[in-house]
Amino acid sequence: MPYIAVSALSHEGLIRDHNEDSLVIGPWTLCATVTESPQTLLFPLGSPCVVAVADGLGGHPAGEVASSLTVRRLAATGSGLDSEEAVRAELRVCNDTLYGAAAADPDLTGMGTTVAGLVLSGEQVLVFNIGDSQVFEILEEDGKPRLHQLSTDDSPPPPPGRRTTNIVTSTLGGTVAPREVEPHLRRLPAAPGTRYLVCSDGLTDPVPPEELAAALDGHDDGRAAFELWRAAIDAGGPDNITLALVRIDE
Fold first, then answer.
1. Cα separation of 240 and 12, whole Å?
2. What are the backbone dihedrals phi and psi of residue 168, each rounded to the nearest 5 degrees, phi first?
3. What pLDDT is stored for residue 87 in this prediction?
4. Distance between CA atoms of 55 and 38, rounded to whole angstroms?
5. Is the pLDDT of residue 36 over 90?
């Protein structure tokens, strides 16, 4: 029977004093806390399974609350996300949930989060994102891994001489007055042997794609997740680092 293997970790990095990232893998969540080592979970490839990262907005209040509310909602509803329309509607409910929580507690006003992930089922893989957390397909070229970005960054082009920008133009929540969101979505076939990387920008900002691909080379899933984390730490660990390596196998 085909199955999904997910190896994941979440870490505060070397600069931040706490972790505002959260993670969902099927019904399992890791909310604004730290894993000491990669964790690997297996699921049958059948009913929809969500794997997603939410990165609470720095410089806003309660980023860890926003990311936690988002992944808990996705964990509770993920098995019903069987179409692009269902995913789009659910992300809009997540957005409304954050604004509703902020309306009930003024200390949460302006909280927000990015979100990026996959919904994997027996027939398809739905890729979604809002913000600048990212989803990649891991391809093989001449026996070496290469990253192909599937998500669409909600960011302006970086300034000259820079590879990244810290400006995010669309998020779940993140403003005082409620605003609607328009998620990015794409549909792919669910093919055994396919691998994906879902991660927050704490991994991709300090480490360029070619170095991420090199960290994957020759390692199994758990060790590869560790090597990706170590690459971000070696680059200074300037932000929270959350990642999930996803593999469809049989």
1. 4
2. -120, 130
3. 98
4. 18
5. no
Give the integer Cα–Cα distance in Å for 164 and 238: 13
Rounded Cα distance, 57 and 20, in Å: 8
Number of H helices, E strands in the chain: 5, 13
| CB contact burial 49-60 (16+ within 10 A = b; e otherwise) | bbbbbbbbbeeb
What mean pLDDT is reported for the chain?
A: 96
Sign, CA dihedral 230-242-44-117, equals negative
* Run of H or E including 56: strand 49-56
Q: How much is the pLDDT for 1?
A: 85
- Span 59-106, pLDDT tens digits: 899 999 999 999 999 999 999 999 999 999 999 999 999 999 999 999
Amino acid at 205: D
Q: Residue 16: pLDDT above 90?
A: yes
User: H/E element holding 222?
Assistant: helix 221-234
3 state SS of 213: helix
